[in-house]
Write a structure and sequence with these properties.
39% strand; Porin; two-stranded antiparallel sheet; 587 residues; mainly beta; 23-stranded antiparallel β-sheet
């Protein structure tokens, strides 16, 4: 049948649907029609409506029955994740996988066994906040498409007494000066999220010599040009979801951060796919990570003909989660950083067993030495709901490990050990309607964790902030990175629109920082943390937040720190106090 190019696809589809009938043999059998009648058929909506008006009306109003609730993603840093964690620990059940972003359907699956009627007042409040977060009401909806947008303005002021001690509060807790998050929903299957913002460069948190700070850009050169920091398309259903774009990621239950994939970077440019049920979850992620190495080379220097930058650098990560007896959860993560190559299909295979075991041989050595352009990653996560309100969790991560046999027979050719672990214990309860949480956590990382034989194979993230500012580097794993021993204890209390927190952190930092200073040999393989003269820091932090109005949020935090062996100088001491106030308005 030859069709006029002006005829729409909708007309064609409607015609074919109208030319079928239901009879005793079943649906979809074409009804025979006389030749003259076929020749006289007009491709017009009006004639189809007259003959099959009920079919046309069904097609028109079908979308109205598919928008039960918008499809949403809960990203790392969202307060709803804290409520989910509180509900899981209170119920005495382990979380299958706290690897945000989580889709609405994943969250509903987590809450499937929760009896909202038997929850404590604090539990009911947390449950209601989670349900509200995954069931937003769009500002506009026509039955199939929904649009939601808000304007948010935030002002932050900081002050400290000792500029030699870095600001204590996490940079992600600083609000942008202005942002306009926009959500577009397609029925209950897809979401498009864009978050344009006006924010000051994140690098001012790293500045020394200043007593005050603010999130207000004082000139054009201080504006963060990498915005938006979050923008993605996502789709999913009751057992799967897919996301592509820029978002925050975090794999694990760590309070101070996670060891393999953490929320340390400002964002990940990635594509992500997950399959999940109540007992098993599989996740895959690939992220593009450009890198320029001059600022992280330290004193090593770079040869003139050596590769110094690339945009063809990719992180591939696979994760498999299991839940046993609803009380124990295990998570296996394996990944590979490919330093200078286009996107490769072999690394998209679902598990490491399908990867080329000697993939590093396929790339030329960096810096004309044995410096591999491919680096590996493995981690094991575990969580155990010991009893209602009490849970334990732990993580182990590894990049390299030299066996005793290798150290004995080939001591000078061994890569340094690169392992780390994190362990924590958390207790939650309802205190007169307050959701209370208490936790203790320790973290250890080898001096060469996240750093491999070339900077391009190392687990380092980089982005450009502005043309007038230096590049910004972070670890992909734990925020404190390598060569660190860290002990953390804390508590939080929240009720309705009011919250308080108290944290005590003791950190021992070795001589190694965020730079590439990799070495080979037995003396480096056996080096322990903290190396050299450790810098010891003790910090006490008190925070609060209050929402007196639905559109107004006030936050404040005060930190006191004491540092021994400051700057890795024996006997040097520094004391300091810093405070932060945030005012955020949302409409």
């Amino acid at each position: 049948m030859k069709l006029d190019k002006r005829q729409s696809l909708f007309q064609i589809a409607s015609l074919r649907f109208a030319n079928t009938r239901v009879d005793g043999a079943g649906f979809g059998r074409s009804a025979p029609r006389p030749a003259a009648s076929r020749r006289g058929t007009a491709f017009s909506i009006s004639s189809l409506v007259k003959k099959r008006r009920h079919v046309f009306l069904f097609l028109v109003f079908l979308p109205a029955f598919t928008f039960a609730s918008p499809f949403t993603m809960i990203s790392a840093g969202d307060p709803a994740l804290e409520d989910l964690r509180f509900l899981a620990i209170q119920s005495g059940k382990s979380v299958l996988s706290l690897t945000p972003p989580l889709s609405r359907d994943e969250v509903l699956l987590m809450l499937q066994d929760t009896d909202a009627g038997n929850l404590s007042p604090a539990g009911k409040a947390a449950y209601n906040r989670v349900m509200k977060a995954i069931n937003p009401v769009p500002l506009y909806s026509n039955g199939f498409l929904g649009v939601d947008a808000h304007i948010q303005a935030g002002v932050e002021a900081r002050v400290r007494t000792n500029p030699a001690i870095p600001w204590t509060q996490n940079v992600k807790d600083s609000p942008p000066l202005l942002e306009l998050p926009i959500n577009i929903y397609a029925a209950d299957k897809a979401q498009l999220f864009i978050d344009p913002l006006l924010a000051r460069s994140r690098s001012y948190y790293d500045e020394t010599g200043t007593y005050v700070g603010s999130n207000i850009p004082l000139d054009a050169g201080q504006i963060d040009i990498s915005m938006p920091l979050r923008a993605f398309f996502a789709a999913g259903g009751s057992w799967w979801n897919f996301e592509i774009g820029r978002d925050r990621l975090s794999y694990g239950l760590g309070r101070s951060g996670n060891m393999a994939v953490s929320d340390t970077p400002d964002y990940y440019d990635m594509a992500r796919f997950s399959l999940f049920s109540q007992t098993v979850k599989y996740s895959f992620m690939v992220s593009q990570m450009p890198l320029m190495i001059h600022q992280i080379m330290g004193d090593e220097g770079v040869q003139e003909d050596t590769l110094t930058s690339t945009t063809q650098r990719y992180l591939y990560v696979h994760r498999l989660d299991f839940r046993l007896f609803k009380r124990v959860s295990l998570g296996l993560t394996e990944g590979v950083m490919v330093g200078n190559a286009p996107l490769e299909l072999r690394f998209l295979n679902p598990l490491a067993i399908f990867h080329s075991f000697a993939a590093w041989r396929d790339y030329g050595a960096w810096n004309k030495e044995r410096s591999d352009m491919v680096g590996s990653l493995f981690s094991l996560d575990a969580s155990w709901a010991i009893l209602p309100s009490l849970a334990a969790y732990g993580q182990f991560v590894m990049n390299e490990w030299s066996t005793p046999y290798e150290l004995e027979h080939w001591p000078e050719s061994q890569a340094p050990n690169a392992t780390g672990f994190l362990a924590g214990l958390e207790y939650t309860r309802d205190l007169a309607g307050w959701a209370a949480s208490f936790y203790a956590e320790c973290m250890y990382s080898d001096p060469y964790l996240y750093v491999l034989s070339s900077p391009f194979a190392s687990y380092i993230w980089m982005r450009r902030i502005s043309d007038s500012e230096p590049l910004r580097y972070n670890w992909i794993g734990h925020p404190e990175g390598r060569d660190t021993v860290m002990y953390t204890a804390g508590s939080s209390f929240s009720k309705e629109n009011l919250g308080f927190s108290l944290n005590i952190v003791f950190t021992q930092k070795g001589m190694h920082t965020l730079q590439w200073d990799w070495n080979m040999g037995k003396e480096y393989s056996t080096q322990k943390t903290p190396s050299g003269i450790p810098e010891n820091k003790l910090t006490l932090a008190i925070g609060s937040n209050w929402k007196p109005l639905a559109w107004l949020k006030l936050s404040a935090r005060a930190d006191g720190s004491v540092v021994f062996n400051h700057g890795h100088t024996s006997g040097a001491q520094e004391y300091g106090f810093d405070a932060t106030i945030n005012i955020t308005c949302t409409y």
